[in-house]
Amino acid sequence: MTPPLDPRALSRDDFVATFGGVFEHSPWIAEAAFDAGLPAEAETAAGLHRTLCGVLRAASRARQQALIDAHPDLAGRLALAGRLTAESGKEQASAGLGALTDAERARFTALNDAYRARFGFPFIMAVKGRGKDEILAAFERRLGNDSEAEFAEALSQVERIALLRLEDLLP
Questions:
Q1: What is the Cα–Cα distance from 116 to 85, expressed in whole angstroms?
Q2: pTM
Q3: Residue 49 has what pLDDT?
Q4: What is the maximal distance between C-alpha atoms in the chain?
Q5: What average pLDDT does this structure show over 34-42?
Q6: ∠ CA(144), CA(135), CA(100), 5° rounding?
Q7: Confidence class of residue 84 from pLDDT cuts 50, 70 and 90?
Q8: I want to staple 123 with a disulfide (CB 3.0 to 4.6 A). Which of 16, 115, 150, 153 is the partner?
Q9: Tens digit of pLDDT for each residue in 61-75?
């Protein structure tokens, strides 16, 4: 039996290699957390999540925006081209987004386009454990948000995605 992974026992390179993808295309979060020193609570998914989210919340608005922008559209062009990260691909497939009908795909495309036009960044939702109808309803509901509320919601969803990914890696 393999002993549980303790993030605090890893070298910086191994830590970033293991946890740098928890936040989509943003290893800078893992780098900054490691460089600041990992607290004892970082041995669990919840504890490491709090540490990493602290880095995200302390980051500039521009860095937060870049993180949001690093996320792919749901059921979008990258998914069709098979160019999602492994984590995003699994998450979207688990929500049934890899098996859409032509009409469903058209609906997702229209909502992705409307959302980007309104907010200037991709719609982000932690889709693991969700279904297509629930995702579409969230899309439509969130299109009614103002820009600041939606930016905050996008960051909240990014943090939720990170927690789910960490839970796959740690107890």
A1: 21
A2: 0.90
A3: 98
A4: 51
A5: 96
A6: 130
A7: low
A8: 115
A9: 999 999 999 987 777
- In this structure, what DSSP letter does residue 130 have? -
Q: Decide: helix, strand or coil at residue 6.
A: coil
Please give the CATH number for the structural domain made up of 72-157: 1.10.3330.10
Buried b (16+ CB within 10 A) or exposed e, 58-71: ebeeebbbebbebb
Q: How is the chain split into domains, by residue range? A: 10-65, 72-157
Q: Could you tell me if 8 and 49 are in contact, meaning their C-beta atoms sit under 8 angstroms apart? A: no
**Catalytic: which of 51, 67, 71, 161?**
71
Name which of 36, 53, 35, 55 is nearest 45 in CA terms.
53
Predicted local distance difference test score (pLDDT) of residue 82: 61
Among candidates 71, 61, 67, which has minimal Cα distance to 112? 71
- 25 among known catalytic residues: no
